[in-house]
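Saturday, quiet lab. Running sequence design on the structure tokens for the scaffold JK sent over.
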């Protein structure tokens, strides 16, 4: 390879397709002179003289010159025709094959260029420049085996530059030829010990070989060369993460922060680790310090907004979400990616804070093309239903269904809205239609059963729950529904307990199922108390209290009905003050209007009882 050409290859890297495959314009210009033509600038007119061929070689030269002129004028297809004519006359000319490869590459047809480049190399097998260019073309075509076959001789001869060597390394890994990759990586470290990329490559090989100790040793050798190289710290952290060594990963990230204080990528990952570990306060503090130093990071601002939202810090959450739109494109993403997410979550914040009109205004602005459009419309339906505006809720759900007809949950939700608005026939008709289309889907029978239960037809709801169990005997929701219904009625309590305990085995962390077991114990206690068996009743009431307290512990957010149940259990144990406080707590958790009346009645009774006891 000429020294100047080698230098150009080193500057441009292996990706410089045109110069590599064609071999440089100077060679073509020289070829033009050999055939008696003249080099011309782009845009000049073809020569007016005629070349009178006196031999196939001369005619090939003339055809080549015409092709050259047409190519310079941008007439690529005509140039290709002329080159192909030249190739038929002189099939042994590597220059013509090169020119054909070049023109088809320029025309955007690398598949056609490939054959001509292969033919050129066949004619000039010792042309290293052509070989590397052809390998690049095969990489572009994702024909990695052939690319490796072409690059390997260059690597063995020491004629492959660093960029080419890294390309060969990557190809070996893509082909799962770890030994070859290792050989290249070791050579890179040996020949360029000051280049940390070699250490990264060799460390990656050791990781692939499942030799983590050697991988870490290699990455640290790279850090000895350049202690401020972020990719080496990233590699160490990734290595520890692959070993599920969270503390090791944190140590690597903190090493990075010691060298690069405030590094956004390290802080983001630390916050993620803290969040995964349930250390929400620590994760929040990490993100707060990050956005204080780097307000331009939309991803960090957005995540911090979510933390505030989940913690009930609604104004802080809105401030973070709004900051996303003001941030530029940071290291953690483009702010436009979060635009509609921000509107949706600001809407959720307003909803949680009881600002319904503001929530509706935000949800309304989520456009139809957004991934959050369906969620926003469902949220609007939820708000309208809460206001008893059933026509508006129905309209929003129909918009959501039109955008995502495959989401059965939306249609089930619509059936629920119809039932709660008094249109039970419409709700049943919609559910029956869904069941006809999906006869083996147990959840649909379950949802229809719930609708019947909410409308007061418990017998029909139980029939449907048994149908669910026919399709899915381990359906915890159906087991719990049947067991809770029997417990609520105070009937078949032993059978109900068996069903509920099966459900708990399937979903031990479900607070609602645990509540069912507590409520069953409470109902059993009432029956024992009515039968005059006070000791057994007290034991059942204590079991109820234990289960109900545990149910609330399992929930992320207190539930008004379970809290009400716990108040009943305290009252049955003569813990009147605890019962009063618990009932009052239930009333703050937004129970239904009917439930609120019943809870208030219990509060009034207890307050009169307690005030009477004080007077006495």
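Result came back. Writing it out in full:
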């Amino acid at each position: 390879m000429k020294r100047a050409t080698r230098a150009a290859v080193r500057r441009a890297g292996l990706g410089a397709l045109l110069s590599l495959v064609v071999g440089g314009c100077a060679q073509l210009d020289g070829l033009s002179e050999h055939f008696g033509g003249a080099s011309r600038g782009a845009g000049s007119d073809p020569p007016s003289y005629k070349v009178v061929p006196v031999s196939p070689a001369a005619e090939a030269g003339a055809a080549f010159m015409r092709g050259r002129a047409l190519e310079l004028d941008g007439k690529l297809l005509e140039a290709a025709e002329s080159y192909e004519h030249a190739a038929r006359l002189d099939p042994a000319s590597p220059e013509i094959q090169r020119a054909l490869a070049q023109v088809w590459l320029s025309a955007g047809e690398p598949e056609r260029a490939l054959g001509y480049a292969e033919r050129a190399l066949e004619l000039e097998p010792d042309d290293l420049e052509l070989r590397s260019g052809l390998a690049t073309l095969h990489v572009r075509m994702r024909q990695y085996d052939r690319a490796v076959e072409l690059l390997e001789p260059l690597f063995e001869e020491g004629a492959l530059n660093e960029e080419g060597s890294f390309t060969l390394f990557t190809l070996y890994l893509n082909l799962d030829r770890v030994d070859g990759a290792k050989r290249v990586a070791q050579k890179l470290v040996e020949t360029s010990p000051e280049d940390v990329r070699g250490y990264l490559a060799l460390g990656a090989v050791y990781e692939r070989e499942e030799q983590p100790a050697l991988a870490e040793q290699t990455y640290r050798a790279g850090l000895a060369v350049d202690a401020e190289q972020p990719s080496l710290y990233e590699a160490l952290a990734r290595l520890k993460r692959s070993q599920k060594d969270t503390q090791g990963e944190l140590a690597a990230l903190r090493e990075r922060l010691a060298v690069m204080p405030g590094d956004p990528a390290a802080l983001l990952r630390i916050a993620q680790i803290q969040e995964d570990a349930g250390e929400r306060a620590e994760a929040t503090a990490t993100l707060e310090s990050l956005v204080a130093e780097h307000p331009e990071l939309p991803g960090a601002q957005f995540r911090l907004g979510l933390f505030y939202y989940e913690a009930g810090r609604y104004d802080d959450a809105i401030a973070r979400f709004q900051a996303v739109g003001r941030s530029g494109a940071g290291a953690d993403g483009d702010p436009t990616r979060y635009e509609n997410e921000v509107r949706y979550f600001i809407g959720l914040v307003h909803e949680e804070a009881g600002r319904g009109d503001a929530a509706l205004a935000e949800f309304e602005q989520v456009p139809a093309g957004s991934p959050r459009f369906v969620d926003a419309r469902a949220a609007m339906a939820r708000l309208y239903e809460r206001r008893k505006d059933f026509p508006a809720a129905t309209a929003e759900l129909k918009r959501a269904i039109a955008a995502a007809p495959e989401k059965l949950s939306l249609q089930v939700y619509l059936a629920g809205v119809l039932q709660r608005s008094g249109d039970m026939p419409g709700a049943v008709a919609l559910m029956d239609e869904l069941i006809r289309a999906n006869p083996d889907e147990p959840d649909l029978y379950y949802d229809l059963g719930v609708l019947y239960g909410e409308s007061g037809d418990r017998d029909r709801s139980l029939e449907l729950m048994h149908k669910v169990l026919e399709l899915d005997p381990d359906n915890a929701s159906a087991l719990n529904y049947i067991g809770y219904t029997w417990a609520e009625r105070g009937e078949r309590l032993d059978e109900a307990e068996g069903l509920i305990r099966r459900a708990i085995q399937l979903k031990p962390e479900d607070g609602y199922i645990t509540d069912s077991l507590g409520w069953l114990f409470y109902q059993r206690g009432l029956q024992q108390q009515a039968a005059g068996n006070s000791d057994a009743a007290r034991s059942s009431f204590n079991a109820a209290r234990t289960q109900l307290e545990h149910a609330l512990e399992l929930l992320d957010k207190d539930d008004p009905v379970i809290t009400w149940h716990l108040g009943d259990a305290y009252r049955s144990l003569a813990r009147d003050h605890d019962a009063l406080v618990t009932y009052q707590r239930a009333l703050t958790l937004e129970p239904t209007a009917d439930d609120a009346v019943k809870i208030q009645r219990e509060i009034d009774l207890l307050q009169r009882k307690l005030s009477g006891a004080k007077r006495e």
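Notes for JK: Residues 1-44 have pLDDT under 50 and may be disordered. Residues 474-549 form a domain with the Serine Threonine Protein Phosphatase 5, Tetratricopeptide repeat fold (CATH 1.25.40). Ask whether to fix the surface positions before the next round.
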